Amino acid sequence: MNLHGVAKCAQVLLKYALDPSCRGLLHCPGREVVTKGGITIAEASPEEREWCAELMANSEPWTTLGRGLGTCRAACRHAEYLLLVAHAGPAPLGFILLHPRGVAGSPYVASVAVAPSFRGRGIGALLLGHAELYFAAGAGHMFLCVSSFNERARRLYQRLGYEAVGELKDYIIDGASEILMHKRLVRP
Question: What is the rounded distance in angstroms from the CA atom of residue 101 to the CA atom of residue 7?
Fold first, then answer.
């Protein structure tokens, strides 16, 4: 996508941000955003919610944290959470699960996962960047937690501008911490 395409994408996002029917968010059900390389990001369908739950249940850090399929399904179906899926054509590549007011009224990234065959290609960074744009008009901050043993994810978050602001020792499992990370969002 060229610079004009990126600018057009940003204009569309801002239009949705100001649309009252969109609950003040930058994404509306049934509307998708085309990103670089033709990847689309759209709200998950019911079938995709199941795909996301299965991907989460069979991936790190959730396997180490003991999150089974039932717990992952409940998270992916939770009414307050927003689940966005990245696609290449009809194929889902990965997802981001967001709570719009998860930490002190600010958006919280509950999960990010990418299908094994698409990892290391920037899909996770693309999903996070989209989430940041999604909430930037109405929120000044975004939070997420990363498990202390998940160094690869932590490096990604740091590279994208997230900073550690707290540590929750033995929070989910003994011997591992959850690192609370924060990023100040740039308002459009």
Answer: 28
DSSP 44: P
Strand order in the sheet with 82-88: 32-34, 40-43, 82-88, 91-103, 106-114, 141-147, 177-184, 163-169
Mean pLDDT of 81-92: 94
Half-sphere CA count of 59, side-chain side, radius 13 A: 19
Is the pLDDT score of 19 beyond 70?
no
69 found inside a domain: yes
pLDDT, tens only, 65-74 = 999 999 999 9
As a whole number of angstroms, the distance between CA 18 and CA 27 comes to 10
Name the H helices within the chain: 3-18, 46-57, 69-77, 123-136, 151-159
**What global pTM score does this model have?**
0.81
Domain count, the chain: 1
Residue 15 CB contacts under 8 Å (≥ 6 apart), including other chains: none
Q: Residue 143: which CATH number? A: 3.40.630.30
**Is position 15 within any domain?**
no
Query: Token pair of 104, please?
Result: 């002190």
Between CA 130 and CA 33 the distance in angstroms is 9
